[in-house]
Amino acid sequence: VRRNNRSPVLRFLPEMDAALQRRRQLETELFKAIVRDELHMVYQPLTNLADRSIFGVEALLRWDHRELGPISPAEFVPIAEENGYIVELGAWALNRGMKEALTWSSHLRLSINVSAIQFSRGNLVATVGEALQRTGFPSDLLDLEITESLFIDETLDLKFAMEEMRAFGCSFSLDDFGTGYSSLGYLPKYPFSKIKLDKTFVRQSIASKQDISVIEAVLHMARGYGMSVIVEGIETGEQAERLRELGCKYGQGYLFGRPMSSANLQSTLLNAA
Ligand code: C2E
Ligand code: CA
Ligand code: CA
Ligand code: CA
Q: How many whole angstroms from 121 Cα to the centroid of ligand 3?
């Protein structure tokens, strides 16, 4: 390893400090975000590749801090997962998502992201049950997106919790598929109805033969388990067409629609009708 003349420690520390300081600041501010009304949900279309009709939306959290401006969930969700506040944020997101979805003119499937921490540190089953009851949202339209990280904690009685929520009528999607553990053994053990193939596969899906084989293998496997596949991160018409040719039925991405406010989604639905 080539060493720089200047001390690497001295060059590194101020940046570490800034990152750490921002993290601390976000952590403190995040606790106030709900009462200050700084959070909202945006909704991104889930689309049939054949006719580009919208069958559902994925709900995504947004935080606009009054001084710091918009902060990405990619930055604040991991902080909230670490300190446990994701339990509160997640409950807020579930209630807000269902409430807003009920105002739309068409009844779409509503996919909401849930974190493993909501299972382990919160009572997700009760939270989902209460939100369904409070809002009156039809449970068979509610889909919960969870990532493979959930399978790390083997002490969690995940399967039992999922079965309880399935008894309410909810369904489950395995999010970011292909980025994690690549062990497929657990898949049939849990009641997933959908797999969301991560956007990293789409990026090169036109160029790389390897990615195409992965996509084909995932489609084949999903069919075997009776699950459907949604491909994430579709940005170009070429990608959509190529994926459709490969046998993909459902997609999500900037090509079909950016994440948008509840009101903008409602106008999009009216325009499409
Ligand atoms: P995710 O669940 O994989 O969500 C999809 C992300 O991909 C979203 O980023 C979305 O805006 C982005 N995306 C959609 N289409 C495209 C595309 O065509 N190209 C590209 N490059 N990106 C696209 P976002 O909204 O920034 O969210 C980032 C992550 O934060 C989410 O990834 C999810 O892991 C987490 N997150 C967001 N909202 C929630 C929430 O309510 N609860 C939990 N637990 N996590 C959330
Ligand atoms: Ca997701
Ligand atoms: Ca995803
Ligand atoms: Ca993700």
A: 22
